[in-house]
Structures are given as C-alpha cells and as structure tokens.
Amino acid sequence: MQRRPFLLASSAALLGTLGTAGSARAAAAAGPRHYAVLSLVGASIDVVTFVFQTGSAIDTNRHQPTPVPQAGFDRIAGRALLEGIKRLDPTAKSDLLEAELPELRNHQADLFIDGSLRLPKEDAADIASGGTTHLLLVTEASNEIRVPEASGHSGKGKVKGLGLYIDRVTPVHWEEERTDSVGYLAPYAYLRVSLVDTATWKVLASDLVMDVRPFPALDPAQHDDPWLALTPEAKISTLGDMLKQAVDQAMPKVLAPVLQG
C-alpha cells in the first residue's frame, strides 16, 4: 500500500520532497524559524462511563471511542498553534500539516523516548523537508480523571486526549449551584503540547494540560440523565473551546526555549 504523505491544510500540496531534509535544514539555519504544526488528538473522542465497583483499584469504566468527522478537532488545535506562533513569534513561518497517520495516532505513548520524538523515517523526512526547523505537536496525555467542583467525588479511572466522562450513580453536591444531583457529565481535555527540533528530533519543551469541566443534570430533582446536561452541539463546542484554551495556555512555555535563546 502506498503511503499517504503529509498535506498542507491550506493548499493540500505535498510538504516538500523526500530526501531533501538535510539541505533544507542547513539552508533554514541562518533564516527565521519555520514551524510545522501537527495535531494527533482530533480523530476521535472517548466517552467514558463510570462503573462503580466496591473495593477495587482496577479501572472498570466503560470506554466508547467515537470518531470525529474529518478529524475536526485537529483543525481547531492546528489553528490555535498557528495563532500562537503569529502572536509570540511573528517573524516565523508556519505550516499546518494534515495526515491520517493511524500508526501514530494509535501509539502516541510510544512516540517520546529519552527526550526525543521517534517517528518513522518517512514521516520524519516529510516533516523536516521544505525548510522546517521545528515541529509543534499536540498529542494525547493519559492520567487519572480529576473532577473539580463536584464535592465528595473526583472521578475514578484513567482518561486521555479528548472525551466525555459520565457518572450516572454518584450523589454529588454542587457548591456554586447550591444543589445536589445524582451523577454529572464532565468534558475533559488531557493533552501534551511539545516543541521538537527537526534537526535532532530532541524535545525542546513540553507542557501537560489537563482540564475537566463538570455539568450537573439539568433538573436533578427529576433525576435527569446527566448525559442530557449538554446538547450534542454544546458537547462539541465545549470540547473545542477546551482544546483551544489548552493550546493557548501551553504555547508561551513551549516556545520559550527558542524565543529566549
């Protein structure tokens, strides 16, 4: 099967020619920085349902991966990265990369080894060609769910990337709303934003961002299903806002090594 190359989102043109990475990096060294930006978090979200089990430390939650049409969240992350570059490093060049890359999406935990980004040679050559000096990469982060504001319960089990955590069984008191409910819906964004030097593939900076926003049922007195706390449109827009804010929050820290150097 022929490998699908990276595409420029703006023109769907190939990002350069294989085999020219070395000369391109040498030519770019004396010029302004040239970023390639890539997101691997937007092809699906995980709907995580809390499953209560007494006395067990094992994650018994149910996970339902749900595809996102046209990897729509990758576009949001990519635009946020480009906007951050324009704001913080205005003289730099930047390209938004798009590719399906299932082999990278499905093994994100294996991409970073000993402080370096490990990519298949063909992918590395595509990214580094065309004068690219740095890669800005958004990947999934995995960690324990921690739900704020829900008094008496902070969630259980691990989550990663973008998703919706739903608890239908736990009584919760909400301080701000001054109400009680059974369960809640909590969109989450567990992401890592990394800056990589494409000459060495060393990670120059990385920032972990974890955001969880719980919503009680619309009418707790009627025992509404917490899944209905947000409309389908609101679920998507909330996750999109969280993703953009996560990238915006990370950008100053991630770009600091090149801006201060």
What do these coordinates show?
By secondary structure, this protein is of the alpha+beta class. The protein has a domain at 7-141 and 191-209 and 236-259. Helix content is 25%, strand content 34%. The protein has helices at 21-29, 72-88, 102-105, 121-128, 232-259, and strands spanning 7-8, 34-39, 44-49, 62-67, 93-98, 112-113, 116-117, 134-140, 142-144, 150-151, 158-174, 179-197, 203-212. The strands form two sheets. Strands 1, 2, 3, 4, 5, 8, 9, 10, 11, 12 and 13 form an eleven-stranded mixed beta sheet that branches. The longest helix is centred in the last third of the chain and has 28 residues, at 232-259. The protein is elongated. The relative contact order is 0.18.
Secondary-structure map:
Layout: E1 7-8, H1 21-29, E2 34-39, E3 44-49, E4 62-67, H2 72-88, E5 93-98, H3 102-105, E6 112-113, E7 116-117, H4 121-128, E8 134-140, E9 142-144, E10 150-151, E11 158-174, E12 179-197, E13 203-212, H5 232-259
Parallel strand pairs: 2-5, 2-8, 3-11
Antiparallel strand pairs: 1-5, 3-4, 6-7, 8-12, 9-11, 10-11, 11-12, 12-13
Keywords:
261 residues; elongated
| Model regions low in confidence, pLDDT < 50 over at least 5 residues | 9-30
**Class from helix and strand fractions:** alpha+beta
**Average pLDDT number:** 83
Tertiary shape: elongated
Query: Main sheet, how many strands, which sense, barrel?
Result: 11 strands, mixed
Percent helix: 25-40%
N-to-C SSE string, H for helix and E for strand: EHEEEHEHEEHEEEEEEH
Computed CA radius of gyration, to the nearest angstrom: 20 Å
